[in-house]
Structure formats: C-alpha cells, structure tokens
C-alpha cells in the first residue's frame, strides 16, 4: 500500500513538472535576474532624468485576463504574469526576465524598461502613452533605434497569431503589433473582453499597493496607530484591500438544540486570539497575492485601555526639558512643514558611572597612543616673509602682478609650525529596534554600536577635539527621541561611559529630525571645521508616512541643509543594501559601508582620522 502511495506521488510530481514546463512561455535557460542588474538599472534610470528618490525593486505578478491555450489551462499557469510599472515612488520591474531565448536580449529588455520609465509620466491611456514615450525616447536618442528594433523583431514571433484569435481579440492584437513596429502610428484601439498577451516592452498602470498606515485604520480619536512592521524578507510587495469585518452575530441563526454541548461536555480551552502568536503567519502571507486588512472593534466593559507603544513614565528614559519643534520636508509639496516634528532630549534611565569594559581596554590604550600624536599637528603656513621652503604659488602670483605693473608686498616662503586642531564633531548613533538583531551567537548590533561609541570617545578625548555623542530613535513625528550621552560642554568620563552602556534599542529611525537637531548644535560651535557622523544599520523609516521615498527625501534635504551651513555630514552603515539609497541621501563620497559589522568599533576611529586629515 505504501509503495502504491509513493508511486502515485512520484507520477503526480513528474506530471506536474512536465505540464508546467510545456505550458510556460518563458525560456528558463536564458533567464536574467533583476538582482544582478538592479544597481546598474537604477543608475541608468536616474541618469536619463528619473527621480532620484524612486526605488528600483521587483514587481509581483499581476492577474491579467488573457486567453490561454489548452496546455496552460490544464497546467493552471499564466493566470498571473509579471509586468513593469512606474509611479512617483516606485519603479517595479519583473523579478526575472526569460522573455527571449537569448540572455543578451533579456538584459537589453531590462535596460529598455528603465529608459522608458525615466521618460514616462502620468498614464492616461496605456497604449497611446507607451507609444508616445517610446517615440520621444527614440527621437531624443536615435542610437537606441537599432536596439529597439531588435527587441521588437525578436518579440513579435512569440506573440499570439491573430489568425487563431476571435475577431475582436485579433483586431486588438494587430493594432498592438503595429504600435510596436511603428510607435505613434495607432491612435484608436479596438475593444476586447480579454486583455492582450503582455507586452514586455511597455509599462503598465501602477498598482495600488495600499497604505498599511492609512488613516482608515486609525482609532476613532484620530491618533495615528501602527504596529511593528513585518520582516522584509521578500522584495515583493503585496496588493492590499480593506474589508469590513463580519462579526457573524447579525441575522437569524438556525441550529439544532441537540448540537449544543451539555454542561458535562464543556471543556475550557485557551482561545485567546489577541496574545497568541501565529508562527506560520509570515509564511502564509508570503504565499498570498492580496492581503486584506480590517479593523476589529471589541467593546469590553470594565477593562483597562493601555498604550503599549511607550513604556510608563517610571520606566522610560528621563526627559531633558521641553520638546523641540523641528520642520520636515514634504517632497510631494516641495516645501518644509514648519514645527511638524517634536524632538525630546532624554537621558538613559538607570545609567550609573562605569569604567571602560575590560575587553576594550587593550584596544583603547592603543587608540589613545595613536590619537595623542594628532593633538598638535604640524602644518605648512603659506605667504611667510621668511621660512624653510619657497612658496611657489606666492612667487607665481608675485611674478604675474609685476608683469602687469603691480608689485604688492607679499611673503614668498613657507614655514612649518605646530598648530592646534580647530575641529568639532557630533556623532549620531541609530538606536532603532533593528539594532536588537543578533550578528552572531555572542553579540547584537546594539552591542557593537556601544563598543564603537566607547572607543570613539576614548580616541577623541585623547586627541583633544571637541565632540558630542547622541543616540536617536523615533515613534511617529510626535516622539523623536534624542539620547544625550555627551554634549560639547561635558567632559568624557565615567558618567558618559555609563550612559553609553545603558543604551537599549527600540522604536524606529526618523533620521531627518535627528540630523537637523545635530546641525543646530554644531552651528553653535566656534570651531572652523565641523563634522557630523551618522552610524546606522538601515534606511530611514517610521510607522506613519515616514517610509520609502518620503523618509529618504526628508533625510536628503536635512543633509543638504547641513552642508549649506558649512558642515560635513558623513554616514557609516552596516546595511548591505545601502548602495540603493545612501548615494542619493549623502552623495557618492558621503558614506561608507562596513561589510563586517564586528569591525565597526575599530573602523570608526580610523574613519574619523581619515576624514579630519588636513
């Protein structure tokens, strides 16, 4: 019997593989993954005028009412097909392309879609708009015509034969093929009850991915609500819809009385649905194509309503003074919203004066010796009346002025003298909940950040530079938390070391507000050179609107504001995906990626030394 079951399973799996391969219109041997070209496509998209804040990610398959052949109907495939689309926040391309039998053509198709998306705008009519964008792109860049023709000529034989389609579908297919051959030549398209077979060279209307933090799901009091975001293991986004929850208590319920439990048959079971965790929820959500969201209202008399977003005042960190109102950049309106964010300075609760941990002592001694040598640096002073070297630039200026009949007195020598460093640095450390993740069996991200802050303080106290240390996190715009570890006026001592070792991860990452407050503090420093360092493990985010492009654009604006005031912002990250967003926020030379996070404590002082080198 067991052998029969195993044989049936083997035959079933073999049949499934066979019929699926026969029904697939793709060429698996020529498949190209988006991940292998994602960075180059993002660069190409932005180089041709695409918005810098638009992210290039994978698109989920979309349901299209296309006519399938018999084999595809038997296999149950081709009901959902990946297509490319673009809006103001996203450029979504298929996760992989196997449209053509040659790898080079599939790669060229990815590049064409990125170019077309950079040329695109709001879509009003799918076919006419794609023709217009294609025509404009080919007119602006004539060198693309041969590449476009190769893609069209290779794709047309793969499309359905109009002679084998019903009359209305055949007329639509002929019109689309004509539009591919000669963009702009077709203005009217026949109507059809079925969608045409996907055109991989065109963009499709943007999908409404839904807004999990929409106000429709907020409480009645109008406060923005939200929970911990799900793990982003997959790059694919899901379509969302909102539904009204059916309680099942309305209407007439018909049942047989003998189906009720008797008193002796009653068994008490734990059916708590609020506190029980579904371990398979993430796996199930990954398999779903569309997620339905609803708001569940439960009325319980005599209960307590607790807000678990923040700890109670007796357990929370200690606030320092009133909140600080800060602006925030809204890229959609292209303006700063004044007094939009509330930032609260805080001290870590339970911090006590502590010495340097024993495992950091040897490295700290070595760093102090290295940085003590920088306390008084030797610099060349130009334009001196006397010195050990000739100032060639001053001599050249003197020679040019004399040729023009001017002979101003100037020093023609250089002298090397000891000068004191004129530098101030403020370091911001990301303390969001993502820093609670484990790097290995022994340490978490927050542990590495704590060690980095301690060693950084040891090094800068040795060199004598003015510096300040802060940590930041956020919970919506009303609660941006800035942990004061050391201000510019305080000395680096055991009190500071105790505050650093008392840090705990929590909440989210509203970078823009933290950078603006750090800029204000650096502005008040009398030093000539001012460095703003940011240590983080991810991109800006929060549970309100501060997600995706909104947070990236606000952070970029805050960095530009800091640069306009003479500061040097620089970001140190351990996020391997940083190349997709940090160049836009900090510039190509404004950040560095630490590939091995365990090396951050030793790399941070070295980076500071390189950034402050004269």
How large, in whole angstroms, is the Cα Rg? Answer: 32 Å
Kindly identify the CATH topology of the largest domain: Rossmann fold
Quick check: average pLDDT? Answer: 80
Using the alpha-carbon principal axes, give the shape: globular
Instruction: Return the domain count.
Output: 3
Question: What is the total tally of β strands?
Answer: 22
What's the CATH C level of the largest domain?
Alpha Beta
Helix content: 25-40%
Terminal Cα span: 82 Å
Tell me about the largest β-sheet. 9 strands, mixed
- Under the CATH scheme, the architecture of the largest domain is 3-Layer(aba) Sandwich
Q: Helix tally?
A: 16
- SS strand fraction: 15-25%
The helix-and-strand class reads: alpha/beta
Assigned CATH superfamily of the largest domain: von Willebrand factor, type A domain
Domain VWFA: 422-611
Region (Disordered): 211-243
Pfam families: VWA
Protein name: VWFA domain-containing protein
Word description of this protein:
It holds the Pfam family VWA. By secondary structure, the chain is of the alpha/beta class. It folds into three domains: 25-204, no CATH class; 318-372 and 421-611, 3-Layer(aba) Sandwich (Rossmann fold), CATH 3.40.50; 376-420, no CATH class. Helices cover 33% and strands 18% of the residues. The chain contains 16 helices and 22 strands. The strands form six sheets. Strands 11, 12, 13, 17, 18, 19, 20, 21 and 22 form a nine-stranded mixed β-sheet that branches. It has a four-stranded mixed β-sheet with strand order 2-6-5-8. A hairpin with a 3-residue loop joins β5 (84-86) and β6 (90-94). It is globular, with a radius of gyration of 32 Å. Residues 210-233 and 270-276 have low confidence and may be disordered.
């Amino acid at each position: 019997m067991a052998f029969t079951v195993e044989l049936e399973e083997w035959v079933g799996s073999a049949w499934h593989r066979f019929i699926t391969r026969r029904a697939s219109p793709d060429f698996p041997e020529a498949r190209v993954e988006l991940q292998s070209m994602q960075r180059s496509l993002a660069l190409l998209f932005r180089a041709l005028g695409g918005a810098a804040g638009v992210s290039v990610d994978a698109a989920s398959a979309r349901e299209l009412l296309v006519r399938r052949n018999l084999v595809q109907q038997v296999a149950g495939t081709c009901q959902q097909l990946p297509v490319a689309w673009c809006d103001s926040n996203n450029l979504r391309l298929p996760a992989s392309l196997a449209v053509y039998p040659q790898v080079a053509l599939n790669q060229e198709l990815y590049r064409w879609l990125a170019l077309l998306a950079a040329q695109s705008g709001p879509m009003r009519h799918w076919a006419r708009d794609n023709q217009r964008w294609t025509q404009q792109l080919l007119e602006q860049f004539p060198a693309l015509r041969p590449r476009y023709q190769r893609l069209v000529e290779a794709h047309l034989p793969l499309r359905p034969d109009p002679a084998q389609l019903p009359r209305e579908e055949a007329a639509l297919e002929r019109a689309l093929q004509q539009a591919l051959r000669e963009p702009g030549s077709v203005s009217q398209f026949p109507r059809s009850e079925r969608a045409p077979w996907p055109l991989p060279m065109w963009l499709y209307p943007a999908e409404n991915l839904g807004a999990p933090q929409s106000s429709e799901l907020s409480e009645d009091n109008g406060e923005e609500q939200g929970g911990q975001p799900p793990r982003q293991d997959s790059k694919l986004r899901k379509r969302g819809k909102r539904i009204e929850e059916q309680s099942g208590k309305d209407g007439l319920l018909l049942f047989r009385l003998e189906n009720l439990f008797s008193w002796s048959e009653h068994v008490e079971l734990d059916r708590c649905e609020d506190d029980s965790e579904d371990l398979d929820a993430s796996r199930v959500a990954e398999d779903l194509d569309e997620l339905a969201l609803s708001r569940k209202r439960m009325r319980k008399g005599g209960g307590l309503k607790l807000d678990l977003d923040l700890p109670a005042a007796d357990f929370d960190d200690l606030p320092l003074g009133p909140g600080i109102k800060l602006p925030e950049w809204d890229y959609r309106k292209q303006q700063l919203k004044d007094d939009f964010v509330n930032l609260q300075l805080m001290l870590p609760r339970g911090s006590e004066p502590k010495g340097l941990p024993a495992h950091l002592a040897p490295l700290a001694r070595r760093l102090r010796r290295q940085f003590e040598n920088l306390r008084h640096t030797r610099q060349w002073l130009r334009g001196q009346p006397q010195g050990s070297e000739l100032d060639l630039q001053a001599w050249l200026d003197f020679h040019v002025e004399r040729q023009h009949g001017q002979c101003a007195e100037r020093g023609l020598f250089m002298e090397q003298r000891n000068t004191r460093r004129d530098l101030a640095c403020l370091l911001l450390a990301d303390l969001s909940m993502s820093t609670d993740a484990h790097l290995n069996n022994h340490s978490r991200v927050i542990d590495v950040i704590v060690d980095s802050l301690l060693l950084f303080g040891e090094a800068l106290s040795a060199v004598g530079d003015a510096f300040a240390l802060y940590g930041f996190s956020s919970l919506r715009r009303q609660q941006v938390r800035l942990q004061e570890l050391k201000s510019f006026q305080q000395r680096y001592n055991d009190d500071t070391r105790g505050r650093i070792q008392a840090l705990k991860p929590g909440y989210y990452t509203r970078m823009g507000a933290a950078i603006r407050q750090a800029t204000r503090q650096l502005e008040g420093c009398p030093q000539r050179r001012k460095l703003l360092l940011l240590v983080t493990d991810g991109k800006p985010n929060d549970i309100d609107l501060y997600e995706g492009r909104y947070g990236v654009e606000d952070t970029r604006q805050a960095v530009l504001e800091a640069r306009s005031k003479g500061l040097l912002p620089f970001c140190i990250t351990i996020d391997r995906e940083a190349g997709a967003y940090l160049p836009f926020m900090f510039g190509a030379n404004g950040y560095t990626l630490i590939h091995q996070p365990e090396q951050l404590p030793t790399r941070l002082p070295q980076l500071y030394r390189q950034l402050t080198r004269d």
